[in-house]
Amino acid sequence: MKIGLTGGIASGKSTVGALLTERGAVVVDADQLAREVVLPGEPALAEVARRFGASVLHEDGTLDRKALGAIVFGDRVRLTELEGILHPAIRQRMRERLDQLEAEDPGRLHIADVPLLYETGQAAAYGRVLVVYVPREVQVQRLAARSPELTAEQAAARVDLQMDIEEKRRRADWVVDNSGTREETRRQLDALWREMMEL
Ligand SMILES: CC(C)(COP(=O)(O)OP(=O)(O)OC[C@H]1O[C@@H](n2cnc3c(N)ncnc32)[C@H](O)[C@@H]1O)[C@@H](O)C(=O)NCCC(=O)NCCS
Ligand SMILES: Nc1ncnc2c1ncn2[C@@H]1O[C@H](COP(=O)(O)OP(=O)(O)OP(=O)(O)O)[C@@H](O)[C@H]1O
Question: Strand pairing of 2-7 and 110-113?
């Protein structure tokens, strides 16, 4: 069965993904695929450069992610334009990667870490969805701590570009609350893993 892993920005998806990997799951990260589809030579990179201009490229032709982020995370219309270029390519790659991994090793649990799983209407593609939850204030705090270049307002604005995390928690099949210590999260994962193994 394919399982979806989601949450909000800086809620702890990668942290939980690593705990699941430790236990034997195979996790495919949509943020990683989003990087692959804009590598030099990929059609999506050419399209991004055409629409957003040379200022979003480094001198060697690779994507300047910080420069592009500074444009799109401050402008919903431009973010939607970027998503229109990248999301179809990311989705296709996710499907291919999961199918390939499942064919190679059907006994394992295959998990897709997709930050925008609910926003992009993909929940139905997964048998179960696990949401990594922290309250909005903790999201903003951890995002600001991880990205010192952002002001508190910019960190809050990035959080608010996504669906409210309380709504994601309501829609979830499983919830891991990552607002406590890493040890507390690990303990929740141990219990959840036993449940997952019985699927
Ligand atoms: C704008 C880009 C180049 C900035 O790159 P950067 O390396 O600084 O950030 P990174 O990709 O690691 O994303 C960090 C986090 O930002 C959030 N985020 C990314 N894209 C979006 C988006 N379209 N809407 C809301 N939040 C987003 C996610 O929580 C993600 O985990 C990049 O985020 C991007 O290409 N975004 C569009 C593709 C997309 O929607 N990716 C989300 C996963 S499918
Ligand atoms: N339980 C915790 N206690 C304290 N800090 C934590 C905890 N879990 C994660 N963090 C920190 O919070 C930040 C966000 O965690 P992580 O990168 O796992 O989130 P994410 O949901 O994958 O983020 P994004 O979607 O933005 O890539 C990281 O700096 C991480 O080290």
Answer: parallel
C-alpha 155 – ligand 2 centre gap (Å):
14
Structural tokens at position 198: 């019985």
* Domain boundaries defined on the chain: 2-25+109-197
Residue nearest to atom 25 of ligand 2 (CA): 9
The alpha carbon of 110 and the centre of ligand 2 are apart by a number of angstroms equal to 21
Report how far residue 96's alpha carbon sits from residue 88's, in angstroms, rounded to the nearest whole number.
12
Integer angstrom CA distances of residue 175 from 19, 92, 184? 15, 27, 13
Tell me how far CA of residue 167 lies from CA of 19, 131, 156, in angstroms: 24, 10, 17
- Report pLDDT digits (tens) over 18-72: 999 999 999 999 999 999 999 999 999 999 999 999 999 999 999 999 999 999 9
CATH number of 2-25+109-197: 3.40.50.300
Write down the pTM of the prediction: 0.95
Chain CA centroid to CA 126, Å? 15
